[in-house]
Amino acid sequence: MRRWQIGPVLGALFALSGAGCADRALPPSDLTEVLAGPRGLAVCPTLRPLEPDTIAATERTCQAAIARAGTAYVVALLRGEHACVDTNHPGPEVAGDPVHPCVGLRALSTGSFREPSDERAAAATRRAAEDFEREIRAACDDATMARLAACSETVDGLVECLRADHWEAAQLLLREQYGDLLPLDDESARACRARVGAASVDLLETQASAIADCLLAPPPEEVASRARRCFGEVANGVVASPTDRKTADALAQSARVFREAIRDACDEVHVPSVDSCGRDLASMEECLLCAHRREAMYVVQSQFGGRPTSPKTDFIDWGTLRNPVVGWDDRRIKDQVMAFHDDHFWVIGSIAFEDDDDHAVAVPTYVRSDDWRSWEEIPAPEGGLGSPDLTFHDGVWHVVFQHPDPLVPESRRLFWTTTPDLLTWTPRVEIAPNVLEERSIIDGALARKNGRTHLLLKWRVEDLPWIAITADDDLTAPWPVDGRLVAGTEQAFHGFAENGQFIEVDGRIHMLATARDPEGFRCGSIYTCSHEPFLYDFAVGDGSAVEDWSHWRHKTQLRIPYEDWNRVMHANTGFLTDWRAHDGFFYLSYSGSLDHESFAGRGHGKIGLARSRDLMHWRLPGDLRD
């Protein structure tokens, strides 16, 4: 039996916004409806579940226990976390990320779990895990597991992988429901938030159970697709309800109950303070319906496994590709950007040899390929393109990069060049020469909005990013400095950020940055073991006003699975591209290594690739799930 590993569910924890998510229990010819999408996305990203195998009668008891115990585990985790949040975070004196004390932490690198610091939350987490494991072990043995398509062929392996997967699902949904856990001193707002949490958990439980019951029941006749019969699917912003009438009715009824519960406790004034997904009451309902419907599908998929229905894409041969996709034995690469231009994939980054000193600028070369396997080296402009940022504007590519200060070579300043073809370059000129004068600044990134150009940069001494703004396209003119960019809070985990990138997704700008790993340092180098990709959203506004750019929130880790080649430096200097127009996926490139000693303590960096339809669930090369 062919098996497909089901990895951790959590990627970016975004709120959803928009309208039109409910199912309609109607005849098959009228089983579609437009969905809302994640924050920054116009529509709900595509999700086509795996095609599950038919379950033999001798295996049904075990498979039913897996589904029942798995869903109960997610539900118990969420209810325990809600009780902790609602008890310990009622007023204005507490704010911040809800990971502690109510959630704990599961380390990506090791899979180990750190319990919540709140005693009651920790006890609830332990009980949920014990009940989950007890029920599965009572119904399953290794012989049965070997015949199922779950994430492991043994009971021990199943317990481990499903617990990790479902814990991640619970944390994704908690952030959808409660956002950044804003302080609430209004009793009615706290009641609204509590109702959002309770109703959302009921919604998830009902929908996951209905889908699993359908998969466990023998179909009344041969069907072309059990996935279509029991899951339905989401494709191009449209949800197709299950063709099984009983399941479709159950999903539609759970959506109606959810709407009524939310409207009983919440009104428009509560939405901003509750910080759930959505920007008004209607979009909050719709986006939570979408988030929980999709996560119910993911949870059940991880319990049943299956085979991809569309095993190949033409844009990138993902099924046979393996990480790392770029790397050399005698060089390291990090701070990379990538582009698709002239039917080639281009990767430009900071490339250095082992014997270069710690402050060496990139070797003057970069690479291109038409298949991600064989790479042609391209000569870069003299001096290289150190830590580049790449954007496309007005028909040309713009690159901002760092280079030694002509007057103080041990310091760095930011320079700018353009190219129509990624082969020929205009002469480099210094950008924002008056910003943080006589100081070393690095990691520049550009964004344009409403006739203004915004420059993100990092002052190397403080490890915090700054924003500068110019009113027009003369990037070499003096820039007014808007002040320090507040990325989250001033706490160590939230404040540090570097190697930033602005990316516009369906008309809304986000910031991607390398920031501190919540797991903390895992080795002796600050350059390798605490750098992870995070995505941010505007705290207020949409970027139309200058002040919008100085405050960012919803700091969300892109949780890329580990592989054997990147156990030490995991996913440093991430760069995100929106290639949905080609095959429906976002792609993230990142630098990883197995050491933190070589290359002046920066590790022997090579480049990996991951992709996602929704910025939440990330797949590695070879993994063909949507």
Notes on the protein architecture:
The protein has 626 residues and is of the alpha+beta class. The chain has 12 helices and 27 strands. The protein has helices at residues 60-88, 119-139, 142-145, 155-178, 187-216, 226-230, 245-265, 271-274, 281-304, 492-495, 580-583, 598-601; strands at 16-17, 32-34, 37-38, 105-106, 113-114, 233-235, 238-240, 331-341, 344-353, 365-369, 376-379, 386-393, 396-404, 412-419, 429-430, 441-449, 452-459, 464-470, 481-484, 486-487, 498-505, 508-516, 531-538, 551-557, 569-579, 585-593, 606-612. It has a 5-stranded mixed beta sheet with strand order 20-24-23-22-21. A 4-stranded antiparallel beta sheet has the order 8-9-10-11, with no helix packed on it. A hairpin with a 6-residue loop joins strand 10 and strand 11. Helix 1 runs parallel beside helix 4, helix 5 runs antiparallel to helix 7 (245-265) and helix 5 (187-216) runs parallel beside helix 9. The longest helix is centred in the N-terminal third of the chain and has 30 residues, at 187-216. The protein is globular and about 75 Å long. The two termini are 21 Å apart. Residues 1-32, 90-96, 358-362 and 488-493 have low confidence and may be disordered.
